[in-house]
């Protein structure tokens, strides 16, 4: 069955590359769709939702692309410093983090900054939204891991982790999260908010991606991609993906297998077919494309990827145990920051629009 998807990669050369992928049972071909020199400095982050692709840069801007209309959609100008991380929550919200220590929540409807939180004393290095949409995690150069209640925009609790972590990610089921510092993946249990295991990569880790609730793809400062099984707390599969270090990994699911996408300093984007079965075998190469650029980040745009989100009010949670209980409720919540602004600001007025068309 053919899939509609696009590979979007950012580069040191300030250019965003888009490749439309033609899927075939045996071989996938990536054809150049667009190149866009939207930024005036190297591109540091990319993310995709059902409709939009966004890129962040050292030039302090977030550029928007409407993939359905195939047009640029303007820029967001709230951060003062490099944009370090971008993540969509469903189709309704985008979260951004930067070297200014801010965590911003944007509505994708009018591209307003609904909430701007001073999240860390140093840089925000990574953020991740829980699958429920109720909370987000962030890590920064102040050596803290912070949990944010996205309903009221306040800090739920802070954990000192004694190191500068540069990646944080929730598992797809929201039962655990991982924090990456240098070459180590620390696996945290949601209920205790404590490290249950640590897996060490041979090189500094540059990118990770959960393939499912138990398998984590890990890329680092070498040409090898390794897959960690969370239950066994060890790498169960590895393969040489590129000729030089792998900068970014992403993935998505087809009917009966997983597609792992890798981007490297060598300019190549590669797509790998991986069957997620008990005994993992190294993936087979589906297709590749040479951008001839030094790639820095990657996102896969797939129009059918947005989760269906139901609404439910969220209670206050101030400890990891309360948080676990709250998040164990099955229903999902849509982040509704428009209402929170009125409750949370001392002067009840809406913030002015920071970016958009």
Automatic annotation (TrEMBL):
Keywords: Nucleus, Repeat, Ribosome biogenesis, Signal transduction inhibitor, WD repeat. SMART domains: WD40. WD repeats lie at residues 76-116, 117-158. SUPFAM superfamilies: WD40 repeat-like (SSF50978). The keyword Repeat applies. It is found in: Nucleus, Nucleolus. One of its GO terms (biological process) is ribosome biogenesis. PROSITE patterns: WD_REPEATS_1, WD_REPEATS_2, WD_REPEATS_REGION. It holds the Pfam family WD40. GO terms for cellular component: nucleolus. InterPro entries: PAK1-Kinase_Regulator, WD40/YVTN_repeat-like_dom_sf, WD40_repeat_CS, WD40_repeat_dom_sf, WD40_rpt. Negatively regulates the PAK1 kinase. PAK1 is a member of the PAK kinase family, which has been shown to play a positive role in the regulation of signaling pathways involving MAPK8 and RELA. PAK1 exists as an inactive homodimer, which is activated by binding of small GTPases such as CDC42 to an N-terminal regulatory domain. PAK1IP1 also binds to the N-terminus of PAK1, and inhibits the specific activation of PAK1 by CDC42. May be involved in ribosomal large subunit assembly. PANTHER family: P21-ACTIVATED PROTEIN KINASE-INTERACTING PROTEIN 1, PAK1 INTERACTING PROTEIN 1. This is PAK1 interacting protein 1. It comes from Scophthalmus maximus (Turbot).
